[in-house]
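Work package 3, deliverable 3.1, input record:
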Amino acid sequence: MSPIRSLDQMVDHLRESGKKKKIAVAYAQDPNTIGAIAKAINEGFVEAVMIGDEKEIRSKAEAEGINPEIFTIVHIPNDVEATTEAVRMAREDEADVVMKGLVGTDKFLKAVLNKEKGLLPPKAVMSYVCALDLPKYDKLLFVSDTAVLPYPDLNQKVAMVNYSVKMAKRFGIEKPKVALISATEKPNPAFQGSVDDSIICKMADRGQIKDCIVDGPLDVFLACDPASVEIKGIPTPINGEADCLIFPSLEACNSFYKGLMLFGGGELGGLIQGTTKPVVVMSRSESEKSKFYCIALSVLMAD
Amino acid sequence: MITRLEQIIDVLKSNEKKRLVAAYANDAHTIEAVNNAVEKGIVDATLVGDKETIKKTCAEHNIDVTKFTVVHEPVEIKAAQKAVELIRNGEGDMIMKGLVSTDKYMKAILNKETGLMPPKAVLSHVTVMENPNYHKLLVCSDVAVIPQPDLNQKVALTNYVINVARALGIDTPKVALVAASEQVLPKMEACVDATIISKMADRGQIKNAYVDGPLAIDVAIDKESVEIKKLESKVAGDADCLVFPNIESGNVFYKTNTKLAKAELGAFVVGAKCPAILSSRGDSVLTKLYSIALAALVASK
């Protein structure tokens, strides 16, 4: 499989692969969600179980010009109960993906994280990886953690590396280049992130982290701009061609991707990490296209 | 590249001789060691101590006292201070402890106003070992001075061993940061510090060397172990330098090496403005000679 270099290529790939997954949508009477799901169904890689208030789901779909018969609708008119059911379906292999609908993120994640009935195994690190499709970068950039871990410790950072590598490999990138981002390329004990980066690099040298090329600390220029690498004369196997960027804090990563979207444009799709089945959580500020890409991404990542 | 300690003697013979200053050199052990070095043509020597006692000791041991410059200072602590003063005045390139106690000797060297320490310098110790079972010399630190080096001190040790290795003719020494395992175990400070220092070397913050760690001692010096463990490292199996995470590991290593593996060595204190020799009476004649030779090799004029 040759590497997928854009989100549209990802969609093409899914269409051609014939892969089809079942998505359980928790409290699905949300027009944006309905629209995105309908598009995915039309593309042929999704079956959807819409759990929520049946009447609302139908009327919202019709208002968007969508035939509600394309969905399976399960009538549970309460947000918490609807979410519990969506999560149960995924746990019991009746669905491949769980997606957040009109339910609040707090309530949604509570069900996902439930110790007995949820989707996060004990000791698993929950995180988030976003695939960025940028006009000025000639391939996809997988970044973490845009949404979940505020200040990842070493353990969590290792998990973030492994998650981003797993995703990049699904896109056909055999040995992803992972850059551990800092403000400088020189390890400095004053920046715990740069210390953790040194440790992670050595772990990769020793085969404790596999299937990827890791370097850090690196600034974003050295990670993504080959000209900077030459100018600075820093030999790094990343060489300005990073596939994955791992950030030291949520504020850094969140600001990075939002700044890019705001000032550089581009598209994205992201997924919660660490769960036994892909979990799609989208915010209302995301574009229609993003929502569709998130759904497609979840199908790509589903086993 | 020097691979055996005796080769240092030959190198020194063909260079301009450095000047050794011995602090409170009243005793036979010190005078004999210095004399040996002078006889071999590797240093010129100044003996600071009680002039009459020095003359007498020389006579008793058939040593020609006129081969040395003698500076008269009969009081132990003042002799140490005088020796330091001579170095400061540019009349010596390396200092050696004589009959003065280690305490007083180091005190004179460490004195903030009149001593030999540059500001913020890290005082440490380098041992160069020659082992019949290893194909070249091993430059080791710190087996004698710093009990529990922190990151900063370990960086200093790394630079010291690099410096000595380069003086031995090794252009880009291979430095192994020794730990209990080559697997990175984040809970072990030795492993964590080693990864940071390795990355600093990658980034040119430590120059002129290949630095890798953590490396357990077997993979640091044994090629077969490296192959069995399938370790990929520029340093493993072929280390020139070993940086130990604490004094116990270093001390045990060098003593096991000498007592059970018949290794020979030379050693000196580093971090001062000049090399400082600190041989003990338990050291063999060869060890004392090699310590002087190494100090002379490393000392700048």
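Chain A has a mean pLDDT of 95.
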